[in-house]
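User: Quick sanity check before I run a bigger batch. Here is a single chain. Can you write out its predicted 3D structure?
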Amino acid sequence: MKIALNKINIIALLTISVCLLNCKKKPNLPDPLEAGWEGNSVCEVLEDNSELRVLKCTFPPNVGHQKHYHNPHYGYTLKGGKFRITDHKGTREVDVPKGYGFSNDSITTHEVLNIGKTTAVFLIMEYK
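Assistant: Done. Predicted structure follows.
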């Protein structure tokens, strides 16, 4: 009986250890689909399957995206614009040109605001 309990304890400890090492902790923030701006959605789902979620996010002038997290992803700019971005590096203003691609291999967080005069549109492809 004592040997059986030791085996159960070892299996439980291994299971917890594997989860702690492999489970990625997500920030206590909304994801890009859940996040919006002043109560309005800025992203829509174009595709969602077992391997990938594709979002189209549209930012008219003076519209942003509240602070949110991204899983590992690739982004592509369909229509560029000028943004104020706040992330772990601080706050900065950037011009994002049409056709610009970007990627992150880890969970990231940021908040953005379109400070330009044109509507900007992005595709965000998140890996599952």
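The longest helix spans residues 2-22.

User: Great, the batch can go ahead then.
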